[in-house]
């Protein structure tokens, strides 16, 4: 009887070990997929300003997104993303760069990206720098920005 319990305990331990390893591998794979999608989206983001195309910009966001810009109201959904773009474009952004410093989460439904940004004018000169936190959501259309919050390193006026 003790032998059966011992064998059962060993079998259960082995099964648990493989299950945990599989779950960890799956989580790591999901996170890698999210990181690749974020990098791809970030590489497209500023082309919206280069081309003055609000649709490229809005396509980076989930349909139920919120853009929480500093010193401003929040912008909701695709309509809000387009409104944010059309209000920010005249103030000079024409290109930029995101540098992701960390991505948190398991990559199943949501991940959080932390990073730094540079925003350039039409001559390629950096006119603002800052930091951001973005909550990404996995949608049927892929990974999209769900909550976007950012701020400048420059002192408020």
Note the topology.
Blueprint: H1 2-45, H2 47-51, H3 54-58, E1 61-68, E2 74-76, H4 77-88, E3 95-104, E4 110-120, E5 126-139, E6 142-152
Can you give the helix content as a percent range? 40-55%
Radius of gyration: 21 Å
Estimate the global geometry from the Cα principal axes.
elongated
- Percent range for β-strand residues: 35-45%
| Average pLDDT level | 89
- The low-confidence parts are 17-23
**SS field, number of helical segments:** 4
Oligomer designation = single chain
- In whole angstroms, the N-to-C terminal distance is 78 Å
For the largest sheet, list the strands in their spatial order. Answer: 2-1-6-5-4-3
Number of strands: 6
The main pleated sheet reads as: 6 strands, mixed
Q: What does this protein look like?
A:
This protein has 157 residues and is α+β, with helices and mostly antiparallel strands. The protein has helices at residues 2-45, 47-51, 54-58, 77-88, and strands at residues 61-68, 74-76, 95-104, 110-120, 126-139, 142-152. The protein contains four helices and six strands, in the order H-H-H-E-E-H-E-E-E-E. Residues 17-23 have low confidence and may be disordered. A six-stranded mixed beta sheet has the order 2-1-6-5-4-3.
